[in-house]
Design a protein that fits this description.
Layout: H1 2-15, E1 27-28, E2 37-42, E3 47-54, E4 57-60, E5 71-76, E6 82-92, H2 98-102, E7 111-115, E8 126-127, E9 139-144, E10 160-167, E11 175-178, E12 199-202, E13 209-217, E14 229-234, H3 239-248
Parallel strand pairs: 8-13
Antiparallel strand pairs: 1-10, 2-3, 2-5, 3-4, 4-7, 5-6, 6-7, 9-10, 9-12, 10-11, 11-14, 12-13, 13-14
């Protein structure tokens, strides 16, 4: 009963009228990359973002679905009323370390959810190639259902997207993204609470492909908060595990 109440509380926050853009600005999107986005709510009152990669398989961040809690997927009917859908099983990458993630260090912050039934009204997104060269200034698109005002759960719940660029020393362990205008030095576009687990897309001629998941964020100049740096776990080292696990669940790629 307590688990259900906590999930319902998280859902109530997301059912409120959301703000108009991902933190700092951006363009809401229910089409394109937004068609793969799902909302994950937990019995501890948390909510995260996931991306459908097969009709019954959702990719998200490992820190979003830790053991000891129950998780559901939120679906919206024609009347926009939210409905909770069951998660059949969860697989967390065995190399994930929570202490590394909370310290913004590289770790296998990747998990999969097997749904009890296909997600209604959604379309799976493609995974990117096994090895993608990431250079400073490389462009990526993030998507999520997180808050636009830090600490205000009522400002979350709508799919939003933002175009960011790579900064620092991007590689196969971690990618750091910033708003191309603010460069992380002042408030700008970026992930916030609830966007964790959201997909990071690389634009390809064949269409957008998922190359990472959102793991953490900072405020401007590495302060606490949002709108500074968006920390991404690239899928390069974990792609084989993702495909193997999903195929064990009956997914075809």
């Amino acid at each position: 009963m307590k688990a259900l109440l906590a999930i319902s509380a998280a859902l109530a926050l997301l059912s409120s009228t959301p703000a108009s853009a991902i933190v700092g600005g951006g363009v809401p999107s229910a089409e394109g990359v937004g068609r793969s986005i799902v909302t994950i709510v937990g019995s501890r009152g948390n909510f995260c973002t996931g991306a459908l990669i097969a009709p019954k398989v959702v990719l998200t961040a490992a820190h979003c679905v830790q053991s000891g809690a129950d998780y559901k997927i939120v679906e919206y009917g024609p009347d926009r009323q939210p409905q909770l859908k069951d998660v059949k099983s969860i697989a967390i990458h065995p190399a994930f370390r929570m202490d590394a993630m909370t310290s913004h260090r590289a770790t296998a912050d990747v998990a999969l959810l097997q749904l009890a039934a296909p997600a209604a009204g959604k379309a799976p997104a493609a995974l990117g190639a096994p090895n993608i060269p990431v250079v400073v200034g490389g462009r990526f698109t993030i998507a999520g259902i997180g808050v636009t005002v830090r600490g205000d759960g009522k400002s979350g719940g709508m799919v939003r997207v933002a175009g960011l660029i790579a900064t620092g020393q991007p590689g196969t362990l971690q990618i750091r993204l910033v708003d191309p205008l603010s460069q992380g030095a002042r408030d700008g576009l970026g992930a916030c609470t609830g966007d964790s687990g959201g997909p990071v897309f690389e634009d390809k001629q064949t269409g957008p492909a998922i190359v990472g998941v959102i793991s953490w964020s900072t405020g401007p100049n590495n302060s606490a908060g949002c709108g500074g740096i968006t920390g991404v776990t690239p899928l390069t080292l974990y792609r084989d595990w993702i495909l193997q696990t999903a195929r064990q669940w009956g997914a075809a790629f």
